[in-house]
Amino acid sequence: MAGRLADKVAIVTGGASGMGRSGVIRFLEEGARVVVGDLNEENGNTFIEELNSKGFGNSARFVRADVSDEGDTRAMVQSAIENFGRLDVMWNNAGIGGAFGPITDVSVEDWDFTFAVLVRGVFLGTKHAAKAMISQGTGGSIINTASVAALGGGLAPHAYSGAKAAVVNFTMTSAVELGPNKIRANAILPGGILTPLMHQGKPEEAGKVFEEIQPIGRVGVGEDIAEAALFLASDESSFISGESLKVDGGLMAVGAKLWGRLAGSEKAHEVAGVNRGTTGVRSEWRKLED
User: Fold this and answer.
1) Is-catalytic flag, 160?
2) Structural domains of the chain, with CATH
């Protein structure tokens, strides 16, 4: 039986780890051919070797890409077309924790870096995917990873929350503009998902927090987001566009104040810096003077 993404070609940014990695595997299992975009070349090559060992070698390619760089994004889209002939799904998923610390101590450079990856990256991915999809004339699906942090305060650092709120709005405006071209744009808003970016090397501690506060009683995993992305990528969601889908175990329904409960955040006003996630580039922090 043909898979739900049979004959479709997808790009997943941030696809070598976390939620993106889970999504790549699900897309391949459902018959898609996938370009894995990621800044971390070591993770990307290792992942492709793993996919080769599972028999997906002919259906997956890795492209090292900085999603905040237009040339890299253009090349990533071109790779999908050159290797697989088309592009049907663009999942703008690459993310970082970004700038953290008191507003009065966050540097302009760290703020701009956060928005470059989380917002400019979504814009560039949408821009170049849309060009390809419009040229094909057969429509497509654009999926943007936002966050429940977009919906209120106390869920994440302000730079991250603000950037994700921008993604939610940009998704809606994209859906309006691209709809006549049969291109759908939707956002996924993950809650507490146990990925390296979220747990910061302390998975048991982070997992316990979310088990306690999420009504569903467990922490989310990458596969939960992958299933949502699969639905939005498939023709099953053909009449859904401009939507922001919360996948959070009921976290926002019950109301959440996470800042101060997760590893390191209890000292959020004692340090400042930037969390570069799993990019392979070192994160930085500095202790603030009293």
Assistant:
1) yes
2) 9-287 (3.40.50.720)
